[in-house]
């Protein structure tokens, strides 16, 4: 009851928003995005002229220079680069694999090295293979059945979960920690079923970690396509003595310098209250990173452009941040939060787009109950644009390090059913992004930023006070 009364007092002390004014501003944002959007053109260049932007690569640096130049052209109050040291992992020559059902009888298998993996021996690695459904199966089998073999992790994403991100979370541990855990039992290498709900021949890469495994005991790790995994599993059931061969040439180098790309519009009334909108500029190297996360970057850039083009003058400082190294280190997000804290900057809101450029459905919010209730009260403003979903939950990896009791963190939630068809794979490319869906996402983000700027977050300190 006390919280309800305090919230009522806070809302009563703020002039009640004019529904018609907000409707007009939000319609202007959507109209501008759908008739004069810039996101698709920016993404075309990032994807087709630059390509995959793995941290520490030449392409990542080209993306930094391109996006900074584009932000400079928008007439923002300030644009700058924030230095950050990032890991440099290189895939090397294309991977090669086959299964051998009997001497001389082989079938090629589509694989790719997992990000951060060590290479196989120069001549490749060939051994018998043992299939498991997850890390927990290793202990059941024991060292006697694993040592000297290749471990094949074959737990699929759960197709019964409507949230594909929940399905992803349910099996991604075998990709991230599978090699470190299998090495403890004497495995020579690991092959991991791709995090993909579709049956196809695209292996999906992604980050993995050896934890505290000594360098001399680290074993190579690769992803296998879903079709490949199904064929390998079926063949193993028929002939448990088959051998598997794979060769990869990846290498980890010393860290190199890269940058977060930042641009801002200075607030007219509360310039010391900072609002962030962003995505991660790096991507994996197999495709061109259009959905993950070129889409989020260009949408975030267009948020500032749309606000300027519709004539809105922000009360608070609004920043676009294109974070570097989300995929294999989160260095950019951590660096941004570290610098913000060292400067005692007051961040009140952050919105991230890192779930693909598909049709927007709503927002996931990490905030107090009072701020969640305020944002839900704006739901009717979004419903004409088919934005219905406002839930409490995860916001985004890059803005997560900024979390504190007062800040409101938000993540754009697009329709996720097709996302993992492309995630970290060779087919994450520009032709799979729909222009209109991308623009609707940018408009939805700009509309939430507008409302948060106009009415402000409710500080937890005031509620408790």
TrEMBL record:
Chief subcellular location: endoplasmic reticulum
Molecular-function annotations in GO: carboxypeptidase activity; metal ion binding; metallodipeptidase activity
Endpoints of the signal sequence: 1-20
Subcellular compartments: Endoplasmic reticulum; Golgi apparatus; Lysosome; Secreted
Gene3D superfamilies in UniProt: 3.50.30.30, Zn peptidases
UniProt keyword annotations, A-Z: Carboxypeptidase, Endoplasmic reticulum, Glycoprotein, Golgi apparatus, Hydrolase, Lysosome, Metal-binding, Metalloprotease, Protease, Secreted, Signal, Zinc, Zymogen
Family matches, as InterPro entries: CPQ, Peptidase_M28
A Pfam short name: Peptidase_M28
GO cellular component, one term: lysosome
Assembly, per entry: Homodimer. The monomeric form is inactive while the homodimer is active.
Name of the protein: Carboxypeptidase Q
Record-level GO BP terms: proteolysis
Ranges where the Peptidase M28 domain occurs: 260-441
